[in-house]
Amino acid sequence: MLTRQRPWMWHDEDLRKSKQLTLMSRSGSAAPPLPTQEFGVSLEHIRDNKGRVVPPVVKQVVEFIRNNGMTTEHIFRRSANVLTVKEIQSQINHGSLVDLASYSDVHLAAVLLKAFLRELPEPLLTYALYDSVIGIQ
């Protein structure tokens, strides 16, 4: 049986139309996101609740990497302790301040940045901007 190959953008559009891709948290819970939540929610949610265009967690980890990891090789290729990452994500989502310097692991900050971007319900280059971005070529 032959299946028709479709570009990924059509697949994403089909998912959104079928309501399988939602703007809810990717944690799988049906509960609405917390006002302080930063992981797994839309950028609009963060902007509306935090009043900032750049999410605080992004600013914090980028500053930490800039100050402590500019000479570290393969910074985004190494992993960090999964339990520590989940613990920090939970603390940030509940509005607690996290001191990344106390962990003294630049790879942890890199993993947090990757996790934030991965858990966004919609990509940074949104579906609406896809055709414009492709047209830049």
Automatic annotation (TrEMBL):
One GO BP: negative regulation of endocytic recycling
Residue ranges the record marks as coiled coil: none
UniProt cross-references to SUPFAM superfamilies, sorted A to Z: GTPase activation domain, GAP
SMART domains with a match to the protein in the record: RhoGAP
GO terms for MF: GTPase activator activity
InterPro entries, per the entry: Rho_GTPase_activation_prot (IPR008936), RhoGAP_dom (IPR000198)
Name assigned to this protein: Rho GTPase-activating protein 8
Organism from which the protein derives: Hypsibius exemplaris (Freshwater tardigrade)
